[in-house]
Please model this.
Amino acid sequence: MKKHVVFILISCLLLQGCAALVVAGAVSAVSTAHDRRSLGAQVEDEEIEFKLNNRLGETVELHKVVNVSFVSYNRQVLIVGQAPSRHLSLKVEELVHEQTGVRTVFNEIRIKKPVGLDVHSDDVWITSKIKSKLLTAKNLDGSHIKVYTEDGEVFLMGLVNDAEAKEAINLTRNTNSVKRVIDVFELIKVQ
Model:
């Protein structure tokens, strides 16, 4: 009898996990279909980020001393994080310029010690607050905007028109704990 109860409990937990995967998959499919980038560009952006992270990990001179992230949107790459020197920051940027498929590079690496886990958790909280604001905004579709926060600085990327860009920047600026807003939007014409 006990074995049957344990089996049923484990089965229920596994089924709940499957349901979560189905929901996550559906949300991902809707996001992908609603994205202004082509499906090919979306895949290419993921591939660029993956390859850059691998190349950084293979570069002994860099991977142990820099704390950087790569964010690719429509083949434009934003580099954020910290490096101990300008020389190492430029080495990371060079790595990105060498990557096939990258159109533009935005080097926003700060020359300072790496931030700690407490700062990263604050950054995640800031990003979630901004994403919520953007997704519930009346005058813009927040799903067209990628938000990345690093040490209280918020970076906004996406294919947006001028009005959407201004609204997103304004909403982000008026969010608690935001130190600075940097937009690297690619502006499109209103249709």
Notes: The chain has a mean pLDDT of 88. The chain is about 55% helix and 25% strand.
